[in-house]
Design a protein that fits this description.
Layout (H helix, E strand, L loop, with lengths): L1 E2 L10 E14 L2 H13 L4 H24 L4 E13 L2 E13 L1
Parallel strand pairs: 1-3
Antiparallel strand pairs: 2-4, 3-4
Family: Belongs to the UPF0145 family.
Protein name: UPF0145 protein C8U37_11163
Pfam families: YbjQ_1
């Protein structure tokens, strides 16, 4: 499966199959949440939250690819990611794009 954030793939002609998306809501445990809260007092990277968001993006991407595979797509073009805070220590990540089939 080819995944790109452009609306084309060089050298390929394709037909659009439709919108595909994946999403997840992730949170860290209370212990990590407290330690990351203390980290904001002194500054620096919040590594536990960074890991959480990377994991969330990977899960959401896999779910989008699963939808595209069900449509027998060869690729997903024009991929976009969005995230939002659901509550303190929890975030939603959504990824979406257009599933396409090569001609």
């Amino acid at each position: 499966m080819i995944l790109v954030n452009t609306d084309y793939i060089s050298g390929k002609e394709f037909e659009m199959l439709g919108l595909v998306k994946g999403s997840t809501i992730q949170s860290k445990n209370l212990g990590r949440d407290i330690s990351q809260g203390l980290k904001t007092l002194i500054g620096g990277e919040l590594k536990a939250y960074n890991e959480m968001m990377n994991e969330a993006r990977a899960i959401a991407t896999k779910r989008m690819v699963d939808e595209a595979t069900a449509l027998e797509a060869d690729a997903v073009v024009n991929i976009r990611y969005a995230s939002s805070a659901i509550m303190q220590g929890a975030a939603e990540v959504i990824v979406y794009g257009t599933a396409v089939k090569f001609k």
